[in-house]
Structure formats: C-alpha cells, structure tokens
Amino acid sequence: MTKNLKATITAVLVAAATLALLLFLGRPDSPAPVDRAAPADGAVDTSVPPDLLVRDDSHRLSTAPDGRVTFVEFLDFECEACRAAYPAVEQLRSEYADRVTFVARYFPIASHFNAENAAVAVEAAAQQGQFEQMYQRMFETQTSWGEQQVSQAPLFRQFAGDLGLDMAAYDRAVADPATLERVRSDQRDGQAAGVQGTPTFFLNGERLEPRSVDDLRAALDTALAQ
C-alpha cells in the first residue's frame, strides 16, 4: 500500500468518525445537557469518585501501562447514538493505543427492548474472554436487530456461535442471574455517577460533553500532557 493511499484511507476514517460523533449528539439517547457551557476541550466541572467509574471487574478494551489516563463510556448496545459514536471511539483507541485505558460499562436503557438482552449476551461472551469481539459485533449489526419488540436472544446466541464460544457455557452464563446482576451493577454505578443517557463519557473522573471527535481528542491530549 502506497503512502498516499494510506494517508487517504486515514483521512476518510477520521472524517467518518467525526461525522458519526456529530450525528450522535443530536440523538434522543444522548445525555441531558448541563446548565453551563462546556469549554473548548469538551470537559465540564463534574468530577465523580473513581470507584464508581472503574471497578476491578470493569471491561477494559485497552490498557495503558502507566495507568495515568482512563476514558470510560457508559453505553447501551441498542442505542443508535452509541452506534454512531462507536467508530469515533474505535478511531481514538487506534490513535491512543498504549497511552489511554479505554473502559466500556453497561447502561441498558429501559425503553430499549433488547438492550439488557444484548448486554447479558456480551457479558456471557466476556466470561469466555470474548468481550471485545461481542461488543463489536453488537454495534456492527445493530441496524438488523435494534428497535425490535421481540427478544433477539436467539440472534445473540448465533453471534456467540459465530465467535466459536463454548455454547453450553454460554447458555449457562445467560441463564445465570449473576450475569444479569453484573450488567445491572454497571448500571447502578452509572446512575450514581449521574449518567442520564447514553453514550456518556468520563475522562479521569470528569464527565465530558464533546461536540466533535476533536473535542475528545483534545481532552485526551490535555490529560496526557498533565
């Protein structure tokens, strides 16, 4: 692949991520706006106790060796805004690999019929070391199962099979009340942290109100520079 082609592909990916993030900001599942204006880097003065944002069992999509900067997203797999933000978050993960810890936490919205089912399926996959793969599959396929008023659990089970999971173990995990409780414990932490909708982002304990992917990038750069 030539340098020019690589540069073109990178530019397209960044533009797509920026557009996706701009689109999600106007969606109904976005968090309620704060009363005061956010500064240019997207940060607002809303600190949260660290243990509400990252637990020992929280799912880390990537881990920075120095542990100085942690980016947390409370998300709902059926949330269209979360799906719109997903490419931007993936782009940032690529750009800040090994420098920023990215943490994903469940926050299924009650009005989304399959949000909790999806989170349980992802958590069941996580018990076999396949959290990231199932997380990605949910967002990549959301348009095919979202906004359905019947259970999509059989489809999610098919996703698990496609990933090569031990299906007997997967079925036990889905049926185990402890798996649902694991999802709801994330949700309770989010509620205690003031999460009102999805996606909601926190950076080193401060809630972010980004207006673009550049706002998120600027916030990360500032945190890394401190």
Note down, in words, how this protein is organized.
With 226 residues, the chain is α+β, with helices and mostly antiparallel strands. The chain has one domain (3-225): Glutaredoxin (3-Layer(aba) Sandwich), CATH 3.40.30.10. It starts with a helix and ends with a helix. Helix content is 52%, strand content 12%. The chain has a six-stranded mixed sheet with strand order 1-6-5-3-4-2. The longest helix is centred in the first third of the chain and has 22 residues, at 3-24.
Number of domains: 1
Based on the coordinates given, report the CATH architecture: 3-Layer(aba) Sandwich
Number of strands: 6
Q: Indicate the radius of gyration in whole angstroms.
A: 17 Å
Helix segment count? 9
Spatial sequence of strands, sheet with the most strands: 1-6-5-3-4-2
Low-confidence stretches: 3-20, 22-28, 30-40
Helix/strand order: HEHEEHEHHHHHEEH
Strand content: 5-15%
Kindly identify the CATH topology: Glutaredoxin
Biggest sheet character: 6 strands, mixed
Write the layout of secondary structure elements.
Blueprint: H1 3-24, E1 43-47, H2 50-53, E2 59-62, E3 70-75, H3 80-95, E4 101-106, H4 115-126, H5 131-145, H6 153-162, H7 167-175, H8 177-192, E5 200-203, E6 206-208, H9 213-225
